[in-house]
């Protein structure tokens, strides 16, 4: 009995069974149904690392509530450009998912996406000034036109009762609310997409580790494989390789030896969430309430009290509480960080350590925080929360990008980055938030860079069938944006909460 792939030659090899590989594989099957595609995942089922609903916030990142996507400048002004870009990206994701649902290629959207309003909530005069300035900068743009702002405790209590009940009436509070926000279970979506792929001749291999990548004489790649449970080894030859293995991507990128991957490092950040599965409590809160990050905290550590839908059940999530581990994956090795150090990235990594002492201080304070201290942080967003109703769960690992910088030696980059070989035969994705929510536009960028001729001359009509507004800036066309929002809401069975 063989445990290693029977395929010896593939057009595409996808490494990793998360939302990124699932999105790319599904997209390619729509564009090139005859291509031979093979996927390798080292765990026994897909979507268990960063795509798992309990390993991420499932926000459906569209910059409606995430304050770090529109920070204040030194003069106090707010530039909406990045927030607009992220919102437009998420609309493409919604359109792609809608296409798959409309064509009955995946199951009911209720299994992976639900309406949950997005809120930003701040305390104090300084934060109020920022939030109001942010709202004024965003509301004139069509993609944010529906966002509401309030300083009235009674109104905010209607939006998020648990946030306001029991709060000191002397506190200055302010909030924005976007009724069209969503909660996304990316683990469920990943399984739907990979299920579609498996039914359409994509070979799916679980329990299989990619151990090495080597150039072939004809410009392709030899992908070395190991099935740890049996000890069996093998190889697949691929014309194109995508490394979409989350935190595991950096090591494989380094093994590929492509010059475009040199100089990159990774800084792993772990953490925990509080989870409440008591439905009597969860039914009193329907929102994702995001606040301001602590000084030195990475953007992905912004505190938030979220409504989650997992397996059809409503629950609450609060956090994250930052932590540190040298693992690059939740199921990884403590040697992941030290084994990633190379002569070409050690200077950037040392420079980042020197320039990010606030981050180190934040992580130390978070790691040493007691459970009582964690409950105190929860009380800032849910004053009457009873710690006994909440269990601590370990979040997924996030690996922030470290890259060379001519002036500083190295910088810690928040976000995602596509690294592509010069000949387009290999691509890897590094980084974190907004990540999964923008998987569709990220994969579009990858396709354009790796298959430029096909992208330009052969795939345009198919792409616009899947995503009707592709190539259009929705923020510059209010009517088209409203039409797109309404159309995808109907397909995805989303009903705007006007509370």
UniProtKB/TrEMBL annotation:
Listed Gene3D superfamilies: D-Amino Acid Oxidase, subunit A, domain 2, FAD/NAD(P)-binding domain
Pathway: Carbohydrate metabolism; tricarboxylic acid cycle; oxaloacetate from (S)-malate (quinone route): step 1/1
Keywords: FAD, Flavoprotein, Oxidoreductase, Tricarboxylic acid cycle
Catalytic activity of the protein: (S)-malate + a quinone = a quinol + oxaloacetate
GO biological process: tricarboxylic acid cycle
Family, as annotated: Belongs to the MQO family.
The protein, known as: Probable malate:quinone oxidoreductase
Native organism: Arthrobacter psychrolactophilus
């Amino acid at each position: 009995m063989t445990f290693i792939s029977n395929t010896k030659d593939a057009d595409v090899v996808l490494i990793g069974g998360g939302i990124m590989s699932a999105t790319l594989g599904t997209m390619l099957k729509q564009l090139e149904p005859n291509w031979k595609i093979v996927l390798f995942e080292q765990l026994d089922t897909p979507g268990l690392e960063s795509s798992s609903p309990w390993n991420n916030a499932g926000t459906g990142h569209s910059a409606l509530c995430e304050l770090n996507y529109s920070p204040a400048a030194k003069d106090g002004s707010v530039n909406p450009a990045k927030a607009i870009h992220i919102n437009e990206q998420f609309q493409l994701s919604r359109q792609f998912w809608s296409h798959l649902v409309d064509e009955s290629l995946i199951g009911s959207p209720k299994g992976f996406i639900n309406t949950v309003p997005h809120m930003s909530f701040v305390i104090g005069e300084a934060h109020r000034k920022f939030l109001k300035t942010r709202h004024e900068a965003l509301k004139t743009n069509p993609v944010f036109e529906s966002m509401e702002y309030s300083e009235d405790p009674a109104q905010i209590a209607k939006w998020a009762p648990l946030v306001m009940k029991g709060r000191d009436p002397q506190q200055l509070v302010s909030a924005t609310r976007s009724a069209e926000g969503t909660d996304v279970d990316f683990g469920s979506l990943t399984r739907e997409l990979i299920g579609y792929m498996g039914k359409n001749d994509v070979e799916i291999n679980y329990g299989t580790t990619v151990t090495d990548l080597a150039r072939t004489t004809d410009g392709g790649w030899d992908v070395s494989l190991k099935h740890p449970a049996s000890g069996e080894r093998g190889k697949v030859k691929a014309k194109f390789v995508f490394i979409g293995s989350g935190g595991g991507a950096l090591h494989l990128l380094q093994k590929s030896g492509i010059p475009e991957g040199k100089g990159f490092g990774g800084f792993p950040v772990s953490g925990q969430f509080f989870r409440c599965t008591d439905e009597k409590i969860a039914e009193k809160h329907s929102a994702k309430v995001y606040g301001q990050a602590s000084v030195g905290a990475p953007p992905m550590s912004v505190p938030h009290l979220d409504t989650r839908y997992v397996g059809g059940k409503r629950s609450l999530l609060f956090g994250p509480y930052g932590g540190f581990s040298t693992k690059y994956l939740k199921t990884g090795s403590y040697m992941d960080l030290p084994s990633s150090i190379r002569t070409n990235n050690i200077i950037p990594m040392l420079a980042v350590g020197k320039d990010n002492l606030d981050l180190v201080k934040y992580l130390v304070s978070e790691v040493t925080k007691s459970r009582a201290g964690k409950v105190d942080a929860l009380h800032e967003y849910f004053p009457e929360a009873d710690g006994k109703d909440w269990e601590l769960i370990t979040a997924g690992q996030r690996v922030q990008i470290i890259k060379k910088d001519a002036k500083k030696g190295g910088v810690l980059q928040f976000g995602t980055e596509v690294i592509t070989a010069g000949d387009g035969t290999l691509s890897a994705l590094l980084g974190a938030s907004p990540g999964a929510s923008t998987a569709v536009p990220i994969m579009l960028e990858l396709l354009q860079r790796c298959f430029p001729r096909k992208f330009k001359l052969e795939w345009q009509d198919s792409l616009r069938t899947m995503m009707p507004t592709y190539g259009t800036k929705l923020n510059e066309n209010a009517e088209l944006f409203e039409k797109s929002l309404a159309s995808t809401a109907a397909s995805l069975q989303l009903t705007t909460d006007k509370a």
